[in-house]
Amino acid sequence: xxxxxxxxxxxxxxxxxxxxxxxxxxxxxxxxxxxxxxxxxxxxxxxxxxxxxxxxxxxxxxxxxxxxxxxxxxxxxxxxxxxxxxxxxxxxxxxxxxxxxxxxxxxxxxxxxxxxxxxxxxxxxxxxxxxxxxxxxxxxxxxxxxxxxxxxxxxxxxxxxxxxxxxxxxxxxxxxxxxxxxxxxxxxxxxxxxxxxxxxxxxxxxxxxxxxxxxxxxxxxxxxxxxxxxxxxxxxxxxxxxxxxxxxxxxxxxxxxxxxxxxxxxxxxxxxxxxxxxxxxxxxxxxxxxxxxxxxxxxxxxxxxxxxxxxxxxxxxxxxxxxxxxxxxxxxxxx
Length: 335
Fold this sequence. Notes:
With 335 residues, the chain is α/β, with parallel strands linked by helices. The chain has eleven helices and 14 strands. The chain has helices at residues 13-23, 43-46, 62-65, 80-86, 105-111, 130-135, 145-159, 189-192, 207-214, 248-255, 305-319; strands at 3-8, 28-35, 58-59, 70-73, 92-95, 121-123, 139-142, 163-174, 197-198, 219-225, 232-240, 262-264, 282-288, 295-301. The strands form two sheets. It has a seven-stranded parallel beta sheet. It has a seven-stranded mixed beta sheet with strand order 9-10-8-11-14-13-12. Helix 1 (13-23) packs across helix 11 (305-319) and helix 7 packs parallel to helix 9. It is found in: Cytoplasm. The active site is at 145. This is N-acetyl-gamma-glutamyl-phosphate reductase.
């Protein structure tokens, strides 16, 4: 018998990816998967890629989840806090939603609305000190997808003092799975194919999370919907500090030299979203703009992998005393 885990909100895209990763994890036993409207349906009827997983969705209720050693909360923003409060203190929790990411209650109200549920340990192991913090926590808030792609590109440059925190510009394109599984007219195939469109320009909810975790003080963030199912490509630029631009490559190489999932690509090789699909990796490349002198870092992740389910399993491994790579691959699938 392995470690008993459950997934609340398992009928969505991130929930389905969690089920796939748990099914292949050597130390985790899936004991419950819950949903709202899909309760009572076989898992494989909702996630046909999981044919052979003999499980029926239960209702998202504390009693269904309380016997697990660890519960993943893959619920819409604003729904995790109430369920978490109703679960026993001895159950470890990893929240893939935004409810417990922000330390600033005013920022929560401004970007999400409603009451602030309080901050949990932030679930990005690659940040300084966070690996140990996550390992010692019973409540962990996993990152936002855009946030992790941006933070991994930016935080080391700010920490090293080579980039100015007050003038950071990010343009990031994401696949449609980042918007969730609910039917929305603007996400129909005929609307998305052959089109790129910005959204939530100047007011995206991941802005305060990125600033909180990276140390940026001024951030312009433009998200773009791309005609692909999954993946994020983020282009992050910042002003250099001092008269001569520092070498951002050396800073990133040192920051991620010992990390299993963040890879600084060889010079001249730029990240592709396809290269990260299905894996828990982040690919980075960097240069200095020859005209403006701005530091540029391009980051690619799978938004359902390192941006959601993979990151959550990585955190769960640390919380459970397992090697953080257990059940996870840093390699993508191709073609």
